[in-house]
Amino acid sequence: MTIRALQSRDVEAILAIQTACPEIAQWTAWDYDRVARGEMAGWIAENGAEVTGFVVARRLSNDLEILNFAVELNSRREGIGAALLGEALQWAQTFQATSAMLEVRASNLAALRFYERHKFEVVGRRPRYYTAPVEDALLLTATLR
Ligand SMILES: CC(C)(COP(=O)(O)OP(=O)(O)OC[C@H]1O[C@@H](n2cnc3c(N)ncnc32)[C@H](O)[C@@H]1OP(=O)(O)O)[C@@H](O)C(=O)NCCC(=O)NCCS
Whole-model pTM above 0.90? Predict the structure, then answer.
């Protein structure tokens, strides 16, 4: 498995992974092209020529915000998510980020277990934050130093 910066040629594969993940924000090709242009930070995992996962993040002052993140359904629980999160956290070190944050659907137990394992804690709830279907968001943060 290789992790590298997200490029515009990855967008089609990312959209295919995203379509199979109703839990996450459904971004457009244009959104991911912005990542490829460097307006946000993004990485993909690949296995040979196949994109198996992606993460998009941004710097918010002294924090890292994870914006969108998924691993292809058949490649989960093989450490790809950990490797992608690790890349984002390593990038956060370059600007001395003090914390990482993200929102997750309250029913997304797999993601909650995953983030718990990486020392994230639930610090808040945003009622009815998500649409289609309407659901609360849990706000998670992790202290980075
Ligand atoms: C969250 C996600 C990115 C994790 O990716 P991954 O490649 O499976 O993660 P890893 O293999 O590095 O970590 C697996 C660990 O996470 C936790 N975990 C992941 N899925 C789990 C599940 N379905 N049930 C319980 N724990 C789970 C466990 O601790 C697991 O370790 P284990 O397999 O030894 O029990 C992946 O499940 C995913 O793409 N989910 C759909 C999209 C999503 O929810 N994105 C995050 C929204 S912010």
Answer: yes
